[in-house]
Amino acid sequence: MGTNLLSPIALRLIHTLLVKVRASPFQGSEAYSTLKISGLKGHPEALERGQSFEALTKPPSVRDISKLANIPLSKCSSYLSALEKIGYIQRRPRLMIIDRRMVYILAYCYPLRSIPFVGFEGLERPASYVQKIATIGKEKKMKYALTHLAASEVISPYKFSNLVYFYADLEKVSEWKESLKKVGIAESAKGSIRLLISDLNPFTGAREINGIKVVSSPLLYSDLYSSGEIEVAEWIAKNEVLLNYGNI
User: Is pLDDT above 90 for 187?
Assistant: First the structure.
């Protein structure tokens, strides 16, 4: 039986690779040089640990990827070999993505519209919902990460939307329902606020911008592209390296 690169486990691995190995293809390029000069400025926590730019850009090992993606080492190695065989990555002399179009596997095989969600609705503006979600997540110490246009608005404003999508842990859904209700956001099957439940490890590579947590650029690109927001997805991709370097 061949390795199924469209399985949930494989898609989780692909997301992890896109997040953790994404700096490698840019080494030697103008973008890489720019990062070397300015990339650490936005990551004081890395400087405090005394990490050099080279240490931060060192590709992870197969064991590292296996652990991050929560996949058995042997299965992880099989998937990596399959991805290498069809030209998306190389494993030696170091793990590197050589075709970043691998992100389209996520977009086509795990589109935003296919992800289960719990809907909510309120009477305020989307920006207010975003702030309330961020406040609840911080106060309750619950993981969350915005995606779709709400996330792109936080990163680099380009297009406005009345929909607010955010990922949350399955085991915390009840707590989110209760907390959102307390701030005037009630559960509604087809509401404009959508709590997404995913097994793709949506918090891998998530980062905080101005106090608001958003998903990794690869996942954001996938969610935007798969929902028809291709122009916004390309805008994010154009700025991806400088905006998102250093999710560690």
Answer: yes
